[in-house]
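Hi there,

I know you've been waiting on this one. I reran it after we fixed the sequence typo, so this is the corrected version. Both the input and the resulting structure follow.
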Amino acid sequence: MTRRLSSLLVPLLAIFLLAQPVVAQEEGNWDKQFQAQISEWIQAIAKRDKQFQQWQDGSTQIQTLGANQHQWLVSITKSGKQVGYMVIGETPDPKQQSRFVLLEYGVGEFILFDDAFAPVEVSAEPVYDGFASHWLVAYEQTNRMVNAKTGEAYPAMFAPGASVINKLPADSLVTLDEQLTQTRVLEQTTQDPFDQISWMHQLHDNSTITWNQLWQQPESHVRVTLTVPLHHDQVLAPFVVGSLHLWNDQHPYIGVWDEGLRFVPYSYAKEVGQFHINERSSPAG
């Protein structure tokens, strides 16, 4: 029996050794593809929207988000200063031309999962889910959530809801070789949704505002607000819509003011939230 096992060991070892170059080559191709996609999207956004000009010639750092989620945070810095971020996902669908999808991107010094706001606990796990993104901190008898954009700790009774952005179909997201073809600016500077609160009177209005309606809104005459209930409706998060992006004339993304300008797919925003269009209040005189 010992001799037989020894005879089997040689071919098995040979198969293992032959497989190693194949695995290394696949990993090298994956990394090359990933880095090329990052560079392509950075250039596409910076070239078309002047709000992202600082992205050009910036440096990137990559962080894996969560366990087995196939999501990565790409932080972009220039001259030692944070200037923006992207969240990239990988689709498991082999029929897709590209394995990578653009889940979110933003401009400004405050990114998602910033180390400056990260919980000190080593057990804190970054969980990405669009506006509901958070660190999940495990304690002995419970878990606590910490907001991934602001570092705010939620009360102990809060629990994450079912993920939405991770279940979006890949054909509703930006993928390989797409270009940012059209942009619109509705609010040039950061805005506080509580400066004008007309949207509060529309919270129970179930009417749907389409992408075309958003695109046709006249700048400076109206304010567009997106309200998003989070964590089993324990939190209502309002955001002022600042900009609109259209990729390849078919994939819309919404930019909201949230400690910087933050873009998410329109397909995601309409799924989790509600848009409100209100006449801009006249300044008090």
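Quick highlight: The chain has three helices and 13 strands.

Best,
R. S.
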